[in-house]
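User: Sequence in, structure out. Go.
Assistant: Echoing your sequence, followed by the structure tokens.
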Amino acid sequence: MRTKPRKPTKLRLIEGNRGHRPIPPDEPQPICTDEPQPPPWLSPYALEEWIRVAPEIFAMGILARIDEIAFAGYCECVSRWRMAEEVVRAMAKADPVSQGLLARMPSGALIQNPAIGAANKARRDMIAAAGQFGLTAASRAQLEGKQRDDGDPLATKYNLR
């Protein structure tokens, strides 16, 4: 049985260290001086998501250059989900009876539209990746949302300004 992945220290501190577990004193912290740039290979929808979300989570101190690939993965999940949903909508226009929910096999049997399965898988992957960056309502609900001032030793130690 797999255990839950460890939450990054920055997210634990923003949440107020609800578990009251000791903060690792020597945990490596990425330097967040330059805003990460999108990789050139992102698909158009993924690039759109990067441009929409990256500046805000960078400003929160959650996204660093070292996270570019993981964040690009989240953006590509968004892209796949959007593309699959577009296929379902196009099929719904072509088949007003099933609204794109069903597809006919060569044998004539009806099955669930494979694009719906692809959309569902991409949505699950997208939500899981989004939670890693504090981008879901559930992950944000755990955040305290308070500003740390310059006198806060944890803010200074972990570069949380």
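User: And one key feature?
Assistant: DSSP finds six helices and two strands in the chain.
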